[in-house]
Amino acid sequence: MAFTSSASLYLGIDVGTGSARAGIFDEHGKLLKSASSPLQIWKEGNCIEQSSTDIWLAVCAATRAACQLANVSGEDIASVGFAATCSLVAVGEDDSPVTVSWSGDARRNVIVWMDHRAVEQAERINSYNSPVLQHAGGALSPEMQPPKLLWVKENLNESWAVAFRWMDLSDWLTYRATGDDTRSLCTTVCKWTYLGHAHMQQMNTKNTKAMDACGWDDVFWQEIGLGDLVEGHYAKIGKSVAFPGHPLGAGLTGTAAQELGLCEGTPVGASLIDAHAGGIGVIESVPSSNIKSQEEEKMEALCHRMVLVCGTSTCHMAVAQNKVFIPGVWGPFWSAMVPELWLTEGGQSATGALLDHLVENHVVAPLLANRAASQNISLYELLNRTLESMAREIQAPFVASLSKDVHVLPDFHGNRSPLADPSAKGMISGLTLDSSEKQLAGLYLSTVQSIAYGTRHIVEHCNAHGLKIDTLLACGGLSKNSLYIQEHADIIGFPVILPRERESVLLGAAILGAVSAKMYSTLQDAMKALNAPGQVFYPSQDPKVKKYHDAKYRIFRALYEQQVSFRSLISDALG
Fold it and tell me: Which of the 8 DSSP states describes residue 345?
């Protein structure tokens, strides 16, 4: 099939941790249909791996299923955009997978974003105090790509020798789709230490082009022991970059089009990391009364918003007109999400994953899961209803107060922001021998609140260092949980706006494609046209609720301080 310019639907593809999803949107940003396909994953200790072959097959299956559900053909699709987790892909010169696994299994050529095998390499890299670290909150996380690359070089010599390309997953997807090896400013800047502001003088959002990579820091790569990547003008990790939404190659190759069930030549935009796509898909979703009229004021209004992309983990995305360095928070990244603005990115490494871990491993979880299924509701909706019933039963002043005896520090997978402490651990205070349904409901509530206290810590920290956040927007799986969102509004004290289109990451990916097809002059124009607000959650006006959460927040902060103290005591004892 050949691509025709009369097509009017936008396809967004999002590869998450557990599945690949595809969504088809109309010209108003409304989701027509979506489909998903599960992904294989291997977990062995700190090593978490996937297969790019499996991922591409899942992308194709989800795309074909979405088209079938929407009753559309490839000729109806005007463009394609990709978003994905910031996982690391290794391929050889012939594009075949190169193993990144101790097992030697060639299928396992993707180091998943949440893999923490490179903690020691991250610590060593950070000890050099390179200037590029200023744009990563002062320290690289083991979830970023340089530590993972160094780990492979030091532990898998053969893989290091034969790998021809190291790519962020979303860049590999666009490469697989188009054959164009141009990397996105989003991935390279946010996860690879590329200095995007090296291109400030080349900025032209209305006529972008792939640019020679001039933002790599040779000294950094040589200093940390990866100087061989400098060879060939960084050919293995990106010798050309482009702004998100830039049209890549000649669109879909014939092979990719056939596999996806689309048309050869369909435009494909330079990619975004999934959280950043969520930001693009939601940040303009504010009620009309909140929108400023003048262009300058509109840009300033964007800088008062923070997007929470809440899924397995949570990313906290905020933009500013000037670069603001915030200790322990990633960025500022120039044009990594919204062109011409500096992105600041906080994060919590385990949020949805933490709730699943605590709830699904509880002794009563199977019983509750069966009950929820019989009522055709989620397990979490059942827990929300249980909490309301408990509050009525004991005449609690408000549901949130049911957590008064249980306090949680949610750093079960380290603290990404604002403490930048990957060695931080989770803590629970207030456990008893009770293992009832009510006990699980209370633990669940306390954990939800602890995640919200973590977001409050990030927001307060960012505002103390120069940002002006006063409005939150939320998207992702956890945003569908009304208790989760209301607790965030009450605890942080800001309204939380949900977008009309709840699949914001898919929409963000679709927006990239729409821009690549020249449906809109700029990414900002596409955002304004395709974003729309939905429900707004306002903070409780009850002063007792605020007083309660202020007290719990102080306990939350004290838990980490106690942990650091305990760590020191044990270190001294063993030293």
Answer: E
The per-residue pLDDT for range 283-313, each reduced to its tens digit, is 999 997 655 555 556 778 899 999 999 998 9
- For residue 119, the one-letter residue type is V
Measured distance CA(63)–CA(22) in Å, rounded: 5
**C-alpha distances in Å from residue 554, one per residue of 259, 350, 404:** 54, 21, 13
Contact by Cβ (8 Å): 263, 73: no
Whole-number Å distance between alpha carbons of 226 and 140: 15
Query: How confident is the model over 183-232, as pLDDT tens digits?
Result: 999 999 999 999 999 888 765 544 456 788 899 999 999 999 999 999 89
Q: Which of 237, 238, 191, 232 is CA-nearest to residue 211? A: 238
DSSP 93-104: TTS-B---STT-
Which 8-state DSSP code applies to residue 248?
A: P
pLDDT at residue 483, as a whole number: 98
| pTM score, whole prediction | 0.89
Angle (CA) 190-196-201 rounded to 5° is 160
Q: Is 9-275 in CATH node 3.30.420.40?
A: yes
User: CA–CA separation, 306 vs 318, rounded Å?
Assistant: 5
- 9-15 and 77-84 strand pairing: parallel
Nearest to 487 by CA among 472, 502, 477, 476: 472
Percent above pLDDT 70 for the chain: 96
Q: What are phi and psi of 335, to 5 degrees?
A: 60, 25
H or E element in which residue 242 lies: strand 240-242
By the 8 A CB rule, do 313 and 349 touch? yes
Residues of the chain with pLDDT under 70: 1-6, 202-209, 289-297
